[in-house]
């Protein structure tokens, strides 16, 4: 009999220390769970169909009381958890998360929270998997910023559109995808939104712009018509967004693979395989300064209106 995998997500929640003894360095949040009498990093099980990044932010807020800014992905941890008398595989996805606002309140599940410097936190943590994750966090930069590079949502078939292709609108599936993208993009600390000057690109990020109270700035370099021959200029646009805030950029299918590939090659990262960019999907590009340090792919939302692959 096959045993289902438990899906979970969490974060290494950090802040700058105000302690003179820590020299203004980083300290991380550890939570104490009375049920297990352990010190761990905040995490929890995902709800049915809940996206991992949403579940991670929700669980961190529930366990620590803090709102966070999502940083670079930290991969996953895998282990077995005994439920009843059955050992089930558990996979936990992790992100670095900078605490912004909030305050801890004890609950039945988490009765204490402690902020600790990295060296102290490693000693306090109960499990080796958490210690390994903490080392993974310590080896990378903090803080970072994220550029969320979105491919426009579903817009029907180009061959079936009689007008100027720049004006081709989103179809019903694409409009639903654009609405669903709010759930992902709003989890980041977005301070600006740009889009190729193409209707289906602008319309893809318009609902998120409305939700976040931000304008959409048109950037022709992100369009299939203007990108060829000006590739490095387009890459420079993504590298030069506000260093203190995340950004959203919407582009097209013939641009994104080459653009992301150039950024990866320039900064000597491993190219993810397979390299995909489905309609309505998002590449989260994590920068430390103007250097790309990580990439992560978020699959397209699949609302009920999308009855076929987008």
Structure write-up:
The chain contains 7 helices and 13 strands. It is of the alpha/beta class and 310 residues long. It has 2 domains: 6-138, Nucleoside Triphosphate Pyrophosphohydrolase, CATH 3.90.79.10; 145-298, Phosphoglycerate mutase-like (Rossmann fold). Strands 1, 2, 3, 4, 5, 6 and 7 form a 7-stranded mixed β-sheet that branches. Strands 10-9-11-8-12-13 form a 6-stranded mixed β-sheet, with helices on both faces. Helix 6 (231-239) crosses helix 7 (256-266). The longest helix is centred in the middle third of the chain and has 14 residues, at 172-185. The protein is globular and about 65 Å long. It starts with 5 loop residues before the first strand and ends in a 12-residue tail after the last strand. The mean pLDDT is 92.
